[in-house]
Amino acid sequence: MMATILNFNVGVLGHIDSGKTSLCKALSTVASTAAFDKHPQSKERGITLDLGFSSFSVDVPAHIKEQDPQYEKLQFTLVDCPGHASLIKTIIGGAQIIDLMLLIVDVTKGMQTQTAECLVIGEIACEKMVVVLNKVDLLPEAKKDQMVEKMKRKMAATLKSTRFADAPIVAVAAKPGGPEAPDTEAVGLHELMELLKTHTYLPSRDASGPFIFAVDHCFSIRGQGTVMTGTVLNGAVAINDNVEVANVKEVKKVKSMQMFKQPVNSAMQGDRVGICVTQFDPKLLERGLVCTPGTLTLIHAAILKVRKIRFYKGSCQTKAKFHITMGHETVMARVQFFGTPSQDSRQESAEESFDFTKEYLYQEELYGQEGASKGKENGATDSEAVQATPSEQWALLEFEKPVICPQKCLVIGSRLDTDIHANTCRLAFYGRLLEPVVDKNYGETVLPKLKVFKNKSKEGMVERMTDEYTVIGRSLFKKETNIQLFVGLKVKLSTGEEGVIEGGFGQS
Predict the structure, then answer these.
(1) H-state helical runs in 144-287
(2) How far apart are CA 187 and CA 208, in angstroms?
(3) What's the DSSP call for residue 232?
(4) Residue 101 bridge partners (DSSP)
(5) Which of 263, 284, 276 is nearest to 228 (CA)?
(6) Which segments of 98-182 are extended strands (E)?
(7) DSSP label at 489?
(8) How distant is the alpha carbon of residue 342 from its chain centre?
(9) What burial class does residue 437 get, using C-beta atoms within 10 Å of its C-beta: 0-12 exposed, 13-18 middle, 19+ buried?
(10) Which of 383, 341, 409 has the alpha carbon at shortest distance from 124?
């Protein structure tokens, strides 16, 4: 009988060469499929090119045992995300399955561009974080403690404005002497392990609902079949269940399953598992989604509730194209932003779906938390800028090619074509998918239901006053305009008085 194991996914993110893989090696006991740079290209270049997974187990800490006595072992699954800037798509794919994040910082360099991008991904996708200052063995012995303290203060100041303001910071040397050095004893790992244990919580896991499985590697084993390894995003799976490979619409039966070399009969949300099926060509699936048959559909467009990422310096213009990452897929999409009219800025709605009955205000761009001032920078007048800051903002995404993604999934929009070496954050906005658009002809079927309006105004002159409350105006409309359409609309005079249009007057 196997002990009941709680699987806890820890994402290891950070700038290239900050020592993420060395740290995972030092912490891990069981190396899984892609762990530790098995990729031939990775070995050559000395960098991680793919999500690597490995794990280690400890006895369940007392605070978890109190909450749920059934667990005897706590298994940390380390997800080593590549730090190379062009691989940010892979990182975003990995971040969505993470319960806690380890942000690895090279103590000799501090925050770097990708460290900041990883922090942004962490803020969007993760609840808790531990900062690891690595490579302390490179600091001069005499000044080591002083330099570590200085870097801790710097990091704490950086984190102050994020959701990780109270994140613990620990100093380690995962591989003293560097990756080529002979086996050297890692420094500070005991403290890191203890920190990980105290920061573990019971992640909300639910076995109900359709099975959705994010596959990150697929390979064949002679005489066995094809193995897909990944993380269960939703629901549960058991041996003999039928599962569908979403992108090729092939249904296969689950023949056997393993979790880190141990055979198991079932797996549920949050578990890392290898699923073996027969007669499936692994070339058809490198990474993607496997699910209960019929659960996932191709979508051609999507509506999501969005927020601008505050470190993104550029503007997010309507009709611009962005790289959109959902799950393990990244595709180009044209975006259109719209918001609630300012007077609707009551409590933010926590809706789970998009409301087609409401009216929305068209936006030239997506506004950040800076709202009004941002509007002013972009040439809007004071009053326009204030009006243009809706309390909630949405985006319509129109994909260049259809994508498969789970309901309510996290979506990140970025400009991955920005120069890798430019010192700027390339992640622009994020949100949750509210309304997947399945119909290929959505331009005729779905878009007409979307009520997005623009504020328009016309200007004219006051011709004369007929009495204290009535004026006659001119040059407001063309001769052929049907005035009846405008009766009842508001008029404001430059002197401040307000009124409504009552009707036409004469022929001119």
Answers:
(1) 144-159, 189-198
(2) 43
(3) E
(4) 11, 129
(5) 276
(6) 100-106, 128-134, 169-171
(7) -
(8) 27
(9) buried
(10) 409
The amino acid present at 176, given as its one-letter code, is P
Is 282 within 8 Å of 226 (Cβ atoms)?
yes
CB-based burial, 189-207: b 16+ in 10 Å, e otherwise: beebeebbbebbeeeeeee
Tokens 């296969």, located at residue: 252
Backbone angles phi, psi at 128, to 5 degrees: -130, 150
Return the DSSP state at 283. Answer: G
235: β partners = none
The beta strands (E) that lie in 309-457 are given as 316-317, 321-326, 329-339, 360-363, 365-366, 393-404, 410-414, 427-437, 452-453
Scored b (16 or more CB within 10 A) or e, 115-131 reads bbbbbbbbbbbbebbbb
Cβ(288)–Cβ(215) under 8 Å? yes
Output the CA–CA distances (angstroms, integers) from residue 402 to 88, 94, 114, 181, 347, in the order listed: 21, 21, 29, 48, 34
Query: Rounded CA gap, 50 and 42, in Å?
Result: 8
- Taking alpha carbons only, the member of 403, 424, 428 closest to residue 415 is 428
- CA 99 to chain CA mean position, Å: 14
- Largest CA-CA distance found in the chain, in angstroms, rounded: 97
- Decide: helix, strand or coil at residue 161: coil
The model carries a pTM of 0.70
Using CA atoms, how far apart are residues 275 and 290, in angstroms rounded to an integer? Answer: 10
Residue with tokens 């007048």: 381
Tokens of 395: 């985006």
Query: pLDDT digit of tens for each residue in the chain (508 aa)?
Result: 456 788 888 888 877 676 767 777 777 654 444 443 444 444 444 433 345 567 778 888 889 888 888 888 888 887 766 644 444 555 555 555 678 888 888 888 887 777 777 788 788 778 888 998 888 888 788 888 888 899 889 889 888 888 888 889 888 887 766 666 666 677 778 888 888 889 888 887 778 888 988 887 888 888 889 999 888 888 899 999 999 998 888 999 999 998 867 888 999 888 888 999 988 998 888 777 899 998 887 889 999 999 998 888 888 999 999 999 886 678 999 999 999 876 554 455 556 788 898 889 999 999 876 443 333 343 343 334 444 456 789 999 999 999 887 777 888 898 877 776 677 788 899 888 899 998 999 999 998 999 888 888 888 888 888 888 888 888 888 888 888 888 888 888 888 888 888 888 765 4
In this structure, the number of other CB atoms found within 10 A of the CB of residue 233 comes to: 18
Q: Which residue has the tokens 């090279």?
A: 106
Q: Judge contact between 83 and 51, C-beta under 8 A.
A: no
Residue with tokens 């990150």: 216
